[in-house]
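Internal tracking record. Fields below are filled automatically when a chain is submitted to the structure queue. Please do not edit lines marked as system-generated. If the sequence contains nonstandard residues, flag them in the REMARKS field before resubmitting.
Queue: standard
Priority: normal
Entity type: single polypeptide chain
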Amino acid sequence: MKIGIDTFACAGGKSALGEYITQILKRIPPSGDLYELFGWDFDRFAFSEIAQQCEFIPQCFVNGETANALWHIFKYPEFVRKRKYTVCFFPAAHLCLSYKSPCPTVGVIHAIPSHWRQQWRIWERFTGVGRLVLPASIRKLDRIIAVSHWVKQELITFAGVKDSHIDVIPNGIDLTLFYPRPKNEESVLLIQPFSFRKPYILYESCIEHPSKNHKTLIEAFGIFKDRTHYPHRLVLAGVDGYGAEQVKVSATASRYRNDIFFTGYFPAKSLPELYAGAAMVVIPSMDEGFGSSVLAAMASGVPVACARSASLPETAGDTALYFYSRNSDEMAECMVTLATNRDVYRECRNAGMQRAQEFSWDLCAERTLQIIQETAGK
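SYSTEM-GENERATED OUTPUT FOLLOWS
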């Protein structure tokens, strides 16, 4: 059996999607099956250490989303025939996918961006490249893995995917990296090249507006500061995305702008320490396919306040404090509670650490590889 794994949208293992495929590759068992990776030429060595048993076949030499889409539309079918794959696995099927495949396919859907809901049916009717990519191509997958029940329902509602085609397999958390650290008396956390003055409230996400809802968080942070007069800072960790300038204008306009810190790109290897050092993690996002930030905070022994939206309640369960995503007063009240009520703080912290144990990369990889094997046997 020969299995092809598409790494085009996995950012060389340096993004959340990169973490996903890295965790899957690390758990491919020794067997008679041959696994091959294919993707950007500049990623040819990105997975060499973790997937030594997998040959990497470099393909597209021109970077960019357009090149990605065109390669999957025009080159992928010929490539698959030449490589004689039994099945192809798309770890980021919501970002790169071929309309037609000579072999069976399995794709993972991690998120449903809000603009897709508005554009999917328009693309399918009127737009050339869009029609070839989404959502018709998603419906052609032999098996679909959704990382949450919320993503599954979105696929059924907005892409017309049949319920029987979708398996829900939550992501995991690496508990050897994300775990509670001793709380010392140091007032500053040093993570080169950053320096964070404690205590701080953390939100780790791409800076996007409006889907990630940073502006409401900034407003809530101001209310929190007005009510408590506590020395907390707000740390917004993540690269700039669509609408980032609007977020930064809101931060500049805040009376507490000197207590709001944008890190820009933050190295993944340092995230565990950043989470563990936070006083609390607040996640106001309106669109999350899976609550990775919730899980990272829980595993790190840090209490969570999050929006009651998308997949966040599915991940956090009854361990977090919830607020309506657009209500800055509710959000601020959750922050005040976690900062002032030690009983609630400890309850959320302890319940979160226990719940984090339920999310295993071993189980995720085992079930994912099983589905790939089942699909190959069709």
